[in-house]
Amino acid sequence: MQIADSKVAGETGEPAGAWPEGLILSHFGVAVEVLFGDGERRMVRVKRNSGHVVGDRVQVDGEVLRRLPRGTELRRRDARGGIHLVAANLDVLGIVVAPLSPAGFIDRAIVAARAAGLEPFVVVNKCDLPQAQPLAVALADTYAGAVPVFALSASRGEGLEPLRAFLSEGHRGAFVGTTGVGKSSLLNALCPDIDLKVAEVSDYKSLGRHTTTVSTLHALPDGGELVDTPGFRDFGLVDISCAELAAHFPGFEALEEHGCRFHNCRHRQEPGCAVSELVAAGELPDERYRTYLDVLVEVEEAEISAQRRGWKK
């Protein structure tokens, strides 16, 4: 069986209107599972670096896939600088955390989601553990009015109804979170038929083991769809400018009405900075401001690296 070509619809000049259209449900590295409008499912071989991801709408002719334009795409950068496309055509992103989740993960994921045109929400899992209760209260306070926060215990099935109701509004989303936060357990609780493998958290630094190795789109019984993605321990931002960081950073929403004096303000020591005024007035906690400055340094370094790569070309 030949390996499918990765093409965008129409780029070959051949008419593709009659090709059956489908949705990529699963990606196995060298093959994808496509769901067609009539309910048929078909495995199609693809090149390992074809660029197709779960959520892509495609037209299929034998072993050739033509990808239709994406509405949204979610990307992340790993610790080595590599860029990974997580999924396409989502409208929400669930950021799953638990006790001992790394600092800054939520804020980076929120910025990435908003920059990609997705609505972020936070899920605090393992709330049956004593140390999770203070975390849930703190995050609900931190992101109040900015991002929905759902506190629950997937393993016990507690607190799931508000999240089910939210997803049943017709959302298609994905859960992202570091390994060990219980993403697979959460998906099992929301969609019991999928029966994903769940592994225990390791003793070393309380980090979990990767239990998901294939990205798959699941339909939920009460409505909505979720992509199960392999776990990862980092969520670096991709192609986010300093201006976009300020525009999407949670806690800076008030800037939409009360902007800074200078449009390119980076919110450090610039005169007329609205963020500095919020911090001074106690409307933005110092901790949130320090987190923003930490992420800003990363974004600035990424911008400099991108400029250097451009100069070498």
CATH homologous superfamily label of the largest domain: P-loop containing nucleotide triphosphate hydrolases
Which spans have pLDDT < 50 for at least 5 consecutive residues?
1-6, 8-13, 197-212
The major β-sheet equals:
12 strands, mixed
Give the H and E element order.
Answer: EEEEEEEEEHEHEHEHEEHHH
Instruction: Please give the CATH class of the largest domain.
Output: Alpha Beta
Rg from Cα: 21 Å
The average pLDDT is 84
Number of domains in the coordinates?
A: 3
The second-level CATH architecture of the largest domain is 3-Layer(aba) Sandwich
Number of E-type strands: 14
What is the helix content?
A: 10-25%
Number of DSSP helices?
Answer: 7
Strand percentage lies at 15-25%
Distance between the termini: 39 Å
Structural class: alpha/beta
CATH-assigned fold name of the largest domain: Rossmann fold
Identify the overall geometry: globular
Your description of this structure?
- By secondary structure, this protein is of the alpha/beta class.
- It folds into 3 domains: 6-67, Nucleic acid-binding proteins (OB fold (Dihydrolipoamide Acetyltransferase, E2P)); 73-228, P-loop containing nucleotide triphosphate hydrolases (Rossmann fold, 3-Layer(aba) Sandwich); 242-312, Probable gtpase engc, domain 3 (Ribonucleotide Reductase Protein R1, domain 1), CATH 1.10.40.50.
- The protein has helices at 105-115, 132-142, 161-167, 183-190, 242-248, 274-280, 286-312; strands at residues 6-8, 21-27, 31-36, 41-45, 57-61, 64-67, 73-77, 83-88, 92-97, 119-124, 149-151, 172-176, 215-219, 225-228.
- The strands form 2 sheets. Strands 1, 2, 3, 4, 5, 6, 9, 10, 11, 12, 13 and 14 form a 12-stranded mixed sheet that branches.
- A hairpin with a 2-residue loop joins strand 5 and strand 6 (64-67).
- The two termini are 39 Å apart.
